[in-house]
Amino acid sequence: MLGIALVSLGMVLTPGPNMIYLVSRSLTQGPRAGMISLAGVALGFTVYLTATCLGLTAVFALVPAAYTGLKLAGAAYLLWLAWKMLKPGGVSVFETRELEPEPARRLFGMGLFTCLLNPKIAILYLSLLPQFIDPAAGNVLLQSLALGSVQIAVGTVVNGLIALSAGSLAAFLLRKPVWLRIQRYVTGTVLGGMAISLATDRSRAMITA
């Protein structure tokens, strides 16, 4: 559980469509609008998790060797995210565009569709959840749901805190850009370390062999 929580934390701190939309909406229309949008994002997480967990159960039952491929894909994805954070010229999530005010129903719907159209979420569940599943420990579906629930909890809480404090954070980072660079470097380093650890860990591979 701790491993998936750390990966989820690193990934939710990586700027993506969900965070950009939530911050933009919070800065433009206020924290309440950001939280309504976040509810839609959380529902999108749940939809992806349910669909992916059902698929993972079938994959492990029919093709155990597919675990290795998913493991390497997950490690490669983490390395890609780490590079996006560490490369020169990375863009801050707080450099946002202005949005027109929207009613609550549309805010929720836009949060949902922003999440559903975000390929990062699909890749997260499909390629990273298997890294933390031990087929010998019991029901793969239940393990997948439990691990995915940790990701949803981490993602929702962190995004919620960011949405509520978007205005203050944006003002602070505008005055102190060095802290933005520190956040990028720390997050990128953590993601890179997790990628190397996952790629070189053979314990679960031996279990599924």
Feature tags:
209 residues; mainly alpha; 10 helices; disordered C terminus
Topology:
Layout (H helix, E strand, L loop, with lengths): L1 H11 L4 H13 L1 H32 L3 H21 L17 H13 L2 H10 L11 H25 L1 H10 L1 H24 L2 H6 L1
Helix pairs in contact: 1-7, 2-3, 2-7, 3-5, 3-6, 3-7, 4-6, 4-9, 8-9
Radius of gyration computed on alpha carbons: 18 Å
Q: Tell me about the biggest sheet?
A: none
| First and last CA, distance | 23 Å
* pLDDT averaged residue by residue: 76
Which structural category do the helix and sheet elements fall into? Answer: mainly alpha
Helix and strand element order = HHHHHHHHHH
Low-pLDDT runs: 203-209
Total helix count? 10
Number of strands: 0
Question: Helical amount among residues, as a percent range?
Answer: over 70%
* Multimer state: single chain
Strand content: under 5%
Shape annotation: globular
What does this structure look like?
It is built from 10 helices and no strands. The protein has 209 residues and is mainly α.
Short summary:
The protein is mainly α.
